[in-house]
Amino acid sequence: MSGPATAPDARDIELERSRLTSALAETWRTPSGFLGALATVDHKIIGRRYIFTAFIFLSLGGVLAALMRIQLAQPEARLLGPDRYNQIFTMHGANMMFLFAVPVMEAVAVYLVPLMVGTRNIAFPRLNAFSYWIYLAGGMLLWIAFALDMAPDVGWFAYVPLSGPQYGAGKRADIWAQMITFTELSALAVAVELIVTIFKQRAPGMTLDRIPVFVWAMLVTSFLVIMAMPAIVVASSSLILDRLVGTHFYNPAEGGDVLLWQHLFWFFGHPEVYIIFLPAAGMVSTMIEPFARRPAFGYLPLVMALIATGILAFGLWVHHMFVVGLPRLGDSFFTASSMAIAIPASIQVFCWLATLWDGKPVFKAPLLFIIGFIVTFVIGGLTGVMVASVPFDTQVHDTYFVVAHFHYVLIGGAVFPLLGAIHYWFPKITGKMMSESLGRSSFWLIFIGFNATFFPMHILGLQGMPRRIYTYQPDLPWHGLNLFVSLSAIFLTIGFLLFFVNAISSLRGGVTASDNPWDAPTLEWATTSPPPSYNFALIPVVGGLHPVWENRDTLSVADGLRSDRRELLVTSLATSEPQVREASPQHSIWPLWAALATTVMLIWSIFSPWAVVWGSIPVAIALIGWFWPKGTPEDEA
Length: 637
Ligand code: HEM
Ligand SMILES: [Cu+2]
Prior knowledge:
Bound molecules: protoporphyrin IX containing FE, copper (II) ion
Largest sheet: 2 strands, antiparallel
Strand content: under 5%
Helix content: 55-70%
Oligomer: single chain
Number of strands: 4
Shape: globular
């Protein structure tokens, strides 16, 4: 029953709305064609690229894992010799940690965080483009070196003196060190972007206690990145100086110290584990709500646990160095703090279980991955408490027990949630649903395959099988289990393949997704699937922790941003009140040039110290191009 008086009104609103969206689409669009794609600053396009690239690296790392497992399936196998094997486990570890696990979490955040906080683009979008290019360059450096038989072979942590000038001949260790610099630059850039986006670009009304838990997790993670990554850049740059210029940072004969390396490395390397785990935990807390059909139990404890983990993460790096022979008191302190980190982890696990317990869970594929995560992560946590004790660690150090432990925490703690997250956010990102039946099958193959592959490694370790051996004698009692482990790895591989098949076939022919297919409560579901270039036509106004649930039909919205130029709303840090309108940068090709110039400089400097001098000239030119003032009008209040 539409009265004649209201009809033109509604049509006017509709007209107004479509005028607004087409103006916004024009303002925010990425220029078409190849050059446009290279110049884009849209966080969604960059995030998608980033996620895709990280999964390519996961597959490459998986191929290496398969090679190792084929080699180890039988005693005295001849597929890989010791040199190759050294390169392969180093490549596998370095690739998985630096090119897959950390970047993929950043990549998901680059895509999701701006949508979840209700803004139109990430802060510093050109830096965001740069961070992707530099990551891609670092990854390609490592893999091209591998193809040229120049891959590092010193373990993913590249201990000196093995990686120093005395033992690490050629350029292998330099490749490792410089690859680190690339990926850390990229991680630091993303951390800065996320912190500013989260602190200053949240939708009006999204006070600190209304921030989605995944966003909190990324905030804590970003601070970890900012505090941990510089340590490794210092460490690897000093290593390059030792190798290339002849300094003696790590040379005890000249007053240097090899332990300095281990301290710097693990001061970074332990928090690194939480840089991978915290985003995953945040994903779980956020995903569990629509599947348990209730708000997550314990918002405050969940957030506090993330923060506590972040702080504690810096107090326990020495548990990687227990067999080095440090003072007893030091060992005790780091044992205690390593065990203490189980507390915030358990708090989160209890909150998730309580949420499921009290909810009406629907067991869709993402929830299966969450449950698989909880099970494996708890096992990995338990063996973690075990190796935190010095006498036990002394026994199992450098055995397969440790390999089992850290794959339980890395794959259980990060890859399971991540695969769940891909199933969950796939419709938002691509506009298509992933197949539920393929999702379930791949879950079961991965879950069973994973446990069958890695659980027996605990036993192998207790039986004394060392890490990083390329083969073993037939009279040792290890070959039955090794064969079993390698066969199980085939299941695991098929599971991963099925996941990829699902993703690709769903992208092509999947069911078209609605805007909010899971009936989820967070803001990214308040826009279309996939979101338009400007994310939100009108900026949402948030009145609670679950804005989409609380305002079922109409989310109240803020008007007042211009549609004829790229504008963001800047809000206050704690209370998220609107402060100013700020111009967001246009697309630009300069971040790509800057990344290329930096790449040339960093790779060249593996061969000559003068690269830093001459190579910085093109970098400076690219930066001038990037920041050349365009006379944009002042920000307006
Ligand atoms: C997908 C199935 C995987 C299999 C079958 C697998 C297998 C292995 C094996 C057999 C080793 C031991 C090499 C040795 O000590 O001789 C190893 C080492 C390692 N893996 Fe994995 N892995 C897998 C996935 C991952 C993932 C997803 C990550 C990280 C997120 C990872 C991180 C590492 C690290 C850091 C090392 C230590 C490398 C070193 O000692 O330098 N792995 N892996
Ligand atoms: Cu650690």
